[in-house]
Amino acid sequence: MSNLPASTAPVSGIPTTHPLVKGEVGPGCAKVDPIVIADSVTRQFGGLKAVDVDHLEIPRGKITALIGPNGAGKTTMFNLLTGFDKPNTGTWEFDGKSLAGVPAFKVARSGMVRTFQLTKSLGRLSVLQNMLLGATGQKGEKLFASLIRPIWKKQEEENTARADDLLARFKLDAKREDYAASLSGGQRKLLEMARALMSKPQLIMLDEPMAGVNPALTQSLLGHIKNLKEDGTSVLFVEHDMHMVMHISDWVVVMAEGRVVAEGPPETVMKDPAVIDAYLGAHHDTDLGDLMEDGPNPVLEAERKAHEAHPEAETTGYGEKDKA
Ligand SMILES: Nc1ncnc2c1ncn2[C@@H]1O[C@H](COP(=O)(O)OP(=O)(O)OP(=O)(O)O)[C@@H](O)[C@H]1O
Hints:
Blueprint: E1 34-45, E2 48-59, E3 63-67, H1 74-81, E4 89-94, E5 97-98, H2 104-109, E6 112-114, H3 127-133, H4 143-147, H5 149-169, H6 185-197, E7 203-207, H7 215-230, E8 234-238, H8 242-248, E9 251-256, E10 259-264, H9 266-269, H10 273-282, H11 288-292, H12 298-309, H13 318-323
Parallel strand pairs: 3-8, 3-9, 6-7, 7-8
Antiparallel strand pairs: 1-2, 1-4, 4-5, 9-10
Helix pairs in contact: 3-6, 10-12
Bound molecules: adenosine-5'-triphosphate.
């Protein structure tokens, strides 16, 4: 059972309306144009309720960050929505179609694709081969079509052209024939994002896109994510790097102990007491008094202090960034 109350009362200085929201801003609020709507989604691991989301809507055509302390249930929620895990209860729809119980490969075909915290590129295949694996609905996969060379040949050429376009966009064209295993961690993240785009998704879900990416590639990754939105793709990403969250998100959803405890635009959601509680709750050694004084953003400070106290823990990108 969670002991974290979701914030419901309006907090002074935090607007209660927003152009993306129908009605009042708050955990589980309805969106004007949602691309994902989830209801009563729970996932239990033994005695632990990793996900316990009453209602969640993700806005279409926007960049939404899913944040929360370690163990909040963010990755589990991603796994459920994309068919990589099965919930105990719950339904959800993507672009008006129910996707609960639909396996991962069909979810991807329907236009919702994801990347993983640890990249899943296939090291012994070339960069180009990895890209071609990302194309969906390949006619050559069907027995009849696979026997008719002109059918699959044309599609193979189209897919290769799209892969080359994306590789150029992500500055991986020089690596086209190299084994994926030879890429740096950051380049693999780029490859995974580029591969996800092969299927022309409507929604791309990125699990910690910045983790392990060297600072030289950070700007380019951020630029790619912003470009996705400009091309009309909706983006949902999990991230610990609060700088990135503040910088590129249109909307932020905060999870703690499996639940959505707050949501709102990035400039105000971090001031929500439920968010500060959620982060402090995860790091009991942080002094709330220090954080509530005027000065730096309290959530960023809680993250920074937690990182200082436990530099070995994978808590945040904040501390590392500031040291760099
Ligand atoms: N397969 C599993 N078996 C048992 N427990 C699990 C499993 N997957 C996740 N959990 C637990 O569920 C909770 C939520 O985990 P999850 O990975 O979704 O959190 P998260 O918010 O993504 O955390 P992080 O930011 O550290 O990646 C954690 O307590 C985790 O230990």
